Each structure stands twice: as C-alpha cells, then as structure tokens.
Amino acid sequence: MKADDLADLTFPLTKDARALERFESHASSELQLAQTLAVESHTLAELRDALLPPLMDGTLRVKDAVAQVEEVL
C-alpha cells in the first residue's frame, strides 16, 4: 500500500465510546511502533552511509567496523 492509497480508504463512524477507546488504544500503539521503526531505520541508514564507503575502498575492514559499532552500542 502506498501513501496515496490512504486517501481512498473509508472508515465507519461510531459514537460508541468503548469502540472509540479500543480503536484509539490500538491505533496509538501502532503509531508508536511506526515512529520507533522510523527512528531505527534512519539510524541504520546513517550507519550504512558512514561505513560503506570506507569498507568499499578498503580503508576499513569488517572486523574493525564491527569493533567501532560495538563501541557506539
């Protein structure tokens, strides 16, 4: 599903307070997970961008890269 597909989605409306609370509870946990995964993805992309060039040109070896990453974590 692409972001543009979201515009075509429809949702039933309800005034049932319990149903709204259940939806909010589920949706907020899903939103939190999405935010956490977005931060993790960004961090991994930064790590990849920092390590890949020196690995490719031979100025950094894999075992040295592992040691550097372990120092950060």
From TrEMBL:
Alphabetical UniProt keywords: Endonuclease, Hydrolase, Nuclease
GO molecular function terms noted in the UniProt entry: endonuclease activity
Domain of life: Bacteria
UniProt-recorded name of the protein: Type I restriction endonuclease subunit S
